[in-house]
Amino acid sequence: MESTTTNHLLLLLLFFFFFHCKLTLSISLLPKQALPTKSGYLPVNPTSKSAIFYLFYEAQKPTSPLSQTPLLIWLQGGPGCSSMLGNFLELGPWRVNFRKTPDQPLMLEPNPGSWNRIFGLLFLDNPIGTGFSIASKPEEIPRDQTKVAQHLFSAITTFIKSNPSFKSRPIYITGESYAGKYAPAFGYHILKENAQWPESDRVNLVGVAVGNGLTDPVIQVATHAANAYFSGLVNERQKHELEKLQTEAVALTEARNWSAATAARRRVLNRLQNMTEFATLYDITKRAPYRNDMVEELLRNDDVKAALGVKGSVVFEVCSDFVNEILHEDMMKSTKYMVERLVKESRVLLYQGVNDMRLGVVPNEAWVKTLDWEGIEGYLGAEREVWRVNGELAGYVQKWGSLTNVVVLGAGHLVPNDQALNSQAMIEDWVLEKGFFGSALKKNLSTNYPLGPMQI
């Protein structure tokens, strides 16, 4: 009898021990302070269960009434990569401790450079089938930017209707990499829709911001050989080899052989990777790729998923190969014409990390100078001003009218990951039109931002 009682007590103690360990792990992975203001699913089609997953973080310290506080929408690239990557590795209020040593546990830590310091911040897993978003049928996943934009428009209009205060808030679409197509397509679609509705029913789009974007691929793919050669990374023979591969990608694109053109672009980048043997072309200063795996580990935790409002038993993938393949033929198609309308009817910010050899400064310079826009000559003739944050050199800003371009020093493809505080200063000053990002540039201006920890 005593033995049975003792066994029961031991089992009970073990149960409470493991329950406590699980609870402690869950709390440590997702502290209460790190929970979003709102989360859930936004339908993309009234006749389908397909929906875009979102996380929304209200501004921590808004400087205006919430009904007037800007709202930033973040779209990840890929195609097929989850915006949870941007949230938990780059610009969200809490990030994984990506600088940890192998013996340290995975944790979330406050991000002093979060983009929701004074703005609302909405992360969308786009397109459906990406991250935690739901695609009822594979054939519902978009195959081009027109469908991507339609889904995003359905999602954002539903989100705005969920709270009357969202209706009047200035909206800025932001993103990076393949969002160099998503963001312009979304903004372009909003402008078209707004033109059909009275002002009271329009989406209050003010601007679009893209970091290290793939926007006009046929022009961008033709820059890699020269960029690598004049950076001292390849010799002349290797340069000619890359140029031959680039010419093939351009010819296939011009022939509208989209699938083959995408494959040809991949051959260019794969050959450049093999020639240079960098750990990653996304940031040639790094000894290892970005820590996407840590975000995947975080979001495969059942307790974390439940706390974020995730439906079902989906196994989280940072980037979906399936969605990427569905958009295979979209890869080499240009959205430059969409940017041309946006720069005429809204504001546009382009920014690039200087260490990115895939979609950095040179590929973006190449397509921007071909914009069909009445302000392009003024932009190309404008000074590239030295930009400082807290007195430290942060990069360079070139601005004319509604177009602003920023070169960010010390950063690669994921600018907010590499330069959190500087990226925060950039997005805040651009939205608020302050300093170098205002209507007129002045030399030697310095933006001062607190370097202390973020206050929750």
TrEMBL record:
Subcellular location: Secreted
Enzyme class, UniProt record, top EC level: hydrolase
Enzyme Commission number, as recorded: 3.4.16.-
Keywords: Carboxypeptidase, Glycoprotein, Hydrolase, Protease, Secreted, Signal
Gene Ontology, cellular component aspect: extracellular region
UniProt keyword annotation of Glycoprotein present: yes
Main location: secreted
GO molecular function: serine-type carboxypeptidase activity
Keyword Signal recorded: yes
InterPro entries, per database record: AB_hydrolase_fold, Peptidase_S10, Ser_caboxypep_his_AS, Ser_caboxypep_ser_AS
Species annotation: Trema orientale
The protein's name in its UniProt record: Carboxypeptidase
Signal peptide (UniProt feature, chain positions): 1-26
Family stated for the protein in its record: Belongs to the peptidase S10 family.
Source species, domain of life: Eukaryota
One Pfam family per UniProt: Peptidase_S10
BP GO annotations: proteolysis
